Every structure is written in structure tokens, then in C-alpha cells.
Amino acid sequence: MPTESPPASPETNAAEIATRIERELWRQADPERAAGAKRYLKSDLAFIGLRTAGLRAVVRSALREPEPDRGQLLALAAALWARPVFELRAAAVEGLTLGWRRLAAPDLAAVEGLIRDSRTWALVDALAINVAGRLVERFDELGASIDRWAGDGDFWVRRAALLALLPPLRRGGGDFERFGRHADAMLDEREFFIRKAIGWVLREVGKKRPGLVETWLAPRLGRAAGLTVREAVKYLPADARAALLRARPGRRS
After folding, report:
1. Rounded CA separation 89/82 (Å)
2. Are 190 and 196 in contact (CB under 8 A)?
3. Residues 34, 21, 96, 201: what is their CA dihedral angle, to the nearest 10 degrees?
4. Strand runs (DSSP E) across the chain, as ranges?
5. Considering its fold, how many domains does the chain have in total?
6. Most buried among 109, 127, 154, 253, using CB within 10 Å?
7. Structure confidence by residue, pLDDT tens digits, 221-252
8. In this structure, is residue 52 part of a structural domain?
9. The domain that contains 73 carries what CATH number?
């Protein structure tokens, strides 16, 4: 009597799906777009040259039936990430974004590993906001991880700490006290991507709670970079925006 073959491991299934995704992405390759993207991002990775919408469609199709479980999702992300091609790493991020509800609190460690290996905003930001941010919002205990990230020696991890708090903040809720504490600690940094992230989060908060942004920013104008301030005040009422911009001492660049 024939015996049944054992079920394939998550890693085996993931490798097969990753290969299908890679084959379809290369089928749609645009060498001219790939060269432009590589120059723009100044990356050592290879590039296929594909619009974001096309990449998302490929990943959605690959994950539609059957939907991967938690183990398969993580294994797929690892399999795609292991290939030094930007769009394959972006596909890993898209897969985690689509399946974030199947992830658990301990999976933030895997997301952190990807953030550390990203070395570009084009991967870090989506991992921080769409994956880490949703996990942090869902699992209160992960706030301690964000606190640790905020003091990390890698500025990409510090940027991720700020952006991971963004999803509920942009809806008018969230933990502004935690964001404000970490942003204040980073406010004197000269790193562009930190300055931009602080301003970005404040800008989004200002859409629904302008008074909160004005109150936080006003006593810090002497420390905040011009980039941070200009971003932060974009959606404040005109009189508040003008007053903050006028009050900047020395108009630090």
C-alpha cells in the first residue's frame, strides 16, 4: 500500500512561491527603469525595474490561494530577502504587509532584522509603518522594543522607531507621549533621515491635532532643524504656522 508523502515544510513551500514571484517579476523587467532606480537609491542591489503597482499585483496573486500561514509567510519573506534584488526584497515587505494579521508579537524580531539589513528608506519605511507599526499597535508589550530601537546606534533603526508609531497617530490616536519622548531625544541629530522622520510624524499628527503639534514644537524651535519645522507645520492653521516659522531663532538649516 503506497505511503503518503510528508507535507512540505514552510521553507520548501516558501522557496517555491519565491521562485514563482521572482520569475514573474523578471518577466516584466524594464532595464531602463531598473537603471534609473539604482541610480536614485544609490544601492548595491540589482534592480528589475518594475512599478510598485505591478509588484503588488504579482505578490497578491502569489499569496491568494492558498493563503500562507504565519510560518509560511515568514519563510517566504526570508526566501525573497535572501536574493540581493531590490524588487524581491520589496516583495518580501509586501508579503508581510498583506499578511500582517497572521503575525505575532515575537515576529517583530524578524522585522527588526530586515530593517537593519535594508539600508534604504525605500524598504525601511514600509517595514516600519506597515508591518512593525501594526504589530506595535496590536501588541502593547512591543512598546519596549520601540524604546530600545529609539536608542539604537543605527539611524535606520532609530528612524523605524519613530515611524512605527505613525499608524494610530495619523488617525488621531496613538502614543504621542512615546513619540514625543523619542523625537525630543533625537532632535539635535544632524542625520537627514531622522530630521525628516520627526517632521513627517508631526505633520501627520497636525492634520487632526494641530494644537498638540504646536504645543510640542514651540519650546523646541531652537533645537529643531529647519527641515523638521517646515515639515511639522505644513497642516497647521495659517496663523500658527506663520508664528512658529517667525519664532525660529537663527533659522537653523
Report:
1. 8
2. no
3. 20
4. none
5. 1
6. 127
7. 999 999 999 999 999 999 999 999 999 887 54
8. yes
9. 1.25.10.90
Q: Would you say residue 89 lies in a domain? A: yes
Average pLDDT, the chain: 93
- The string of DSSP codes covering 16-83 is HHHHHHHHHHHHT--HHHHHHHHHHHT-SSB-----HHHHHHHHHHHHHSSPP-HHHHHHHHHHHHTS
How does pLDDT run across 147-195, given as a tens digit for each residue?
999 999 999 999 999 999 999 999 999 999 999 999 999 999 999 999 9
Residue 123 lies in a domain: no
Domain residue limits at 29: 9-102
- Given a contact cutoff of 8 angstroms between Cβ atoms, the answer to whether 133 and 165 are in contact is yes
- Does residue 135 lie in a domain region? no
Give residue-wise pLDDT tens across range 81-102: 999 999 999 999 999 999 999 9
Residue type, 192: F
Write down the pTM of the prediction.
0.91
Q: How confident is the model at residue 66 (pLDDT cuts 50, 70, 90)?
A: confident
Distance CA 226, CA 122 (A): 23
Please state, in angstroms and as integers, the Cα–Cα distance from residue 230 to each residue in 17, 55, 111, 171, 245, following that order.
Answer: 44, 33, 31, 21, 8
